[in-house]
Every structure is written in C-alpha cells, then in structure tokens.
C-alpha cells in the first residue's frame, strides 16, 4: 500500500511538472582532445557512392516578392554566429537603447534577455537604466531540451539597427537565474523566440515578439532566415559566419532556383510533415509516422539534425553501409567522439547525401531537400595541428524530428506565417569551395503517402495540460480518500470491527 501511495504521489508530482520541451540545444564545439578523438585510421577505398544528379528543372516557383515599404537589402547580413552556438541579431533594448546580441530561435516563443551578470556573458540588460521598462510583476520560467532560465516578465521598447524601421513595444522576460543556458563561448545575451503564441510562457497571453512587430509596424506576417556557416569550423570563435533574418518578406538575392513550400500543420512550433528519408539512393522505408513521431519541426535554435531514435538508427546503419566506413567507434555516431583524418585527406566523398521529403502545398506531391556530407560531417578545428577532425551532425531525439541549423544552413528558409507554410530554396551561401552543399528538387508524387503521416503520436500542450489537471484532480481525490481511510480504520480497530468492505480498506489494514 505504501508503494501504491508513493506511486500516486509520484504521478501527482510528475504530471504537475510535465512541461513539454522547447528544443533549444546548442553545442559549444569544445572537445577534450585527449579522450574524444577517434583516431582509428580509416582505409579510404573506392567510394561506392553513385550520386544521382537529378535536377529540379520544372519545380514550381512560388517565390513572392517584397510588397511594400520595407527595404530587405538593409537586413542582409544582420546575423552573426554558427550552427554550433546559434545565430544572433543585434538589438537595442530600452531607453536609451542598450545593445545586446539576441539568439534567433524558431523553436520557442519568448523574448528573453539576461538581466543579471553571468560568468559566460559579457554584459546584460540593466532594467534600472531604461526609463521605458515596465515590470509586469509575473514570474516566468522556460525549460529547453538543454538548459533553462527563470526571470520576470516586463515590457520595453526595442529597435533593430538592421531591421524594419521604428521602435516597438514588446514583452521581455528578464533572465535572473539560468542553468546550462548561457554557454562558454556564446556571444549572445538573450533569445528571440519566433514561434507561435501557443509556446509562450507562462501562457499564450504573452504576445511573442514577431506578433508584436507585425501588429505595430504593419510589415507582412512573414520572415525568412539565411544562415551561412556551412562547412565552417564549429569552434572558430574569432570569425563567426554571417546570416540574414529578413523580417517582413523574402529577399530574392538570398536563394537560387525554386522556392518550395510545405504546409505548417499546426501553429505552435513550425510543424511540418516529413514523408520519406533517403540516405544516398536508399529509401529508409520506415512507416512515415516514424518520421513525425511525435512531431517534425523546423528549428534554428537546435544545432543538429535530430531524428527519432528508430529513424536515427536506420540512418546510421545506412550511412555505415553506403560509406564503407565500418571501423568507426560508436562514439562518433553518438556524438561523444570526433573522427580525424590526416590533414590533406578529406573524408567527405565517402559519405552519402541525405534527403528529407516534405509534403508540398499540393498534398498529392512532395519535394525533397538534400544535404551533402559537408553539412552533417562538421569540421572541428584546433584539436591538433596535423589532423582534420569532424563530428557527426545528426543526433537521436526522444521528442521528434528537428530540422536544425545543420540542415537550415543549406537553405534559405521562409516562415510564411500569413499563408501557413514554410518555404525552402537553395541558399546562395550554401557552398564550400564553390561546390553547393545542398540541393532541392521536386515535384514527386505523394499519392502513395496520402494517409496522414502525423497523428496518433502528437500530444499538444493544451491536451497535455488537460490530462495533467485531470490527473491532479484524481490525485487530490485519492489523497482525500487515503487521509480519510487513515483515520477510519484506527478508530474502528479500537472498536474491533471492520464494516467497510471496499478493497482499498481491506488492503490497507491487512
Ligand atoms: C581531458 O580528459 C583527461 C582524461 O579524462 C583529463 O585528465 C583532462 O583534464 C581533460 N582536459 C580538459 C581540458 O578537460
Ligand atoms: C538516377 O538517374 C537516372 C538517370 O539519370 C534515373 O533514371 C534514375 O531514376 C535516378 N534515380 C534516382 C533515385 O533519382
Ligand atoms: C529605414 O528608413 C530609411 C530612411 O527612410 C531607409 O533609407 C531605409 O531603407 C529604411 N530601412 C528599412 C529596413 O526599411
Ligand atoms: C496536384 O498534384 C497532382 C498530381 O501531380 C495533379 O494532378 C494536380 O493537378 C495538382 N493540383 C493542383 C491544384 O495543382
């Protein structure tokens, strides 16, 4: 009975704490060279890869051009950073403006800045020095896949030097405590959550940044992201790569070829529908629900391509076969070890392309985004002068497929909120040494995958909360009963008679 009661308590505790994860997951690119290297020498035989250069050609061009008053060219190159530590935007916060670098995260919905000193950041937003800061007197807390912070809600005015003109009033979470959120080597002091209100904390009444911006400046309800760190070393702090966050539309000079759109299934994360994965020419052939279990999202705040465990295992298996590289220690695939080659040797030609098929806006069609090994076999420098070391840019995930920065660096990605769709086109900066590292093509028939690849698995937060509250209600009821029972038998035992026939009581006094 005690066990039973303990498990009831545990259940109560668990449900009241069931947040769902905000997927921010950042890698610092710091490896301990004495333990993390996989120096097993690799025999570089003939590549078994036959790369099929089928081309898009007749893809639908659905790019929309800038409509009005915003000058997108002024926003080009307004980001700095890399996939490893995230891409950040310079913003002026408060009156007079305090300059802070803010991480661009399409996988969460709070705008939050450091409001107290922390060993890993150089400066923070000093609320006392802003004449326009207003505290809302409400606590707020966000937990990410990695890291968390706590703070206080307020509002203030912000402007973006390389953004739409004007000053807007937005909700700010002032970060007072954090753990594993600011990391060594990051050069940002806050986070800009660009997803939908449903993910905002403490609740969706806290209007997210981009909603406020669209409402107050009148720019179109769309933004687009180009991140240019492809093929650059993930630990090169001196010279961060660039990128662009175009607020209000699409800048045509940032992509090549056709823009392909996939519907946003639900407006919380940028949730999309993945129909198929290919490694090289090989279709993984999993049930398409595996790819979307429990969701598939596009998230600039996650470094790697994260795959549901079954999918991850199938991908590693397929890469191992295709690449003829079998003597890797498993540490490479799990991310705890680097693989190194002597300088001058390049391992990239031994790895296959990886293609993700997404549902097109015409539901009976799909298109595929393809990343070359240059994007997912990522160089890490400064380990040892004679070696080139790489890490695996794909990791297993327990909470869904995440198209993270590793993949996004190949594409110009359009978050077309107005039309509820995410667009992909090959990015103009997705090349290393003049060779493109990403491809996109379509249309492919998706009539064979007309059945929903999503559903059954997905648990939305409101539902989760309803379940949580319902369970808490049940818990409370059970507790009351248990308390009552705690007293009843004691009294009755003195009387020497047991009248209650319920099994609960019989068990309790056995
Ligand atoms: C690297 O790992 C070794 C062995 O565990 C340890 O002795 C050393 O202090 C580590 N170095 C760093 C920089 O963490
Ligand atoms: C590869 O290319 C050949 C001809 O170029 C084509 O017939 C074949 O269907 C392609 N295979 C794939 C998987 O794209
Ligand atoms: C902001 O306004 C200035 C002056 O009117 C203009 O030159 C500039 O292009 C505008 N910037 C943006 C991003 O629209
Ligand atoms: C959607 O795709 C199917 C199959 O390719 C095609 O027959 C149909 O005409 C398309 N519908 C629209 C509205 O383009």
Automatic annotation (TrEMBL):
Ranges of residues in domain Peptidase A1: 87-425
Taxonomic superkingdom: Eukaryota
Keywords tagged on the record: Aspartyl protease, Disulfide bond, Glycoprotein, Hydrolase, Membrane, Protease, Signal, Transmembrane, Transmembrane helix, Zymogen
Positions of transmembrane segments: 463-488
GO cellular component, one term: plasma membrane
Cystine bridges: 228-429, 288-453, 340-389
Mode of membrane association: Single-pass type I membrane protein
Subcellular location: Membrane
UniProt-listed PROSITE patterns: ASP_PROTEASE (PS00141), PEPTIDASE_A1 (PS51767)
UniProt-listed GO biological process terms: amyloid-beta metabolic process; membrane protein ectodomain proteolysis
Protein name stated in the entry: Beta-secretase 2
Organism: Chanos chanos (Milkfish)
Upper classification of the organism: Eukaryota, Metazoa, Chordata, Craniata, Vertebrata
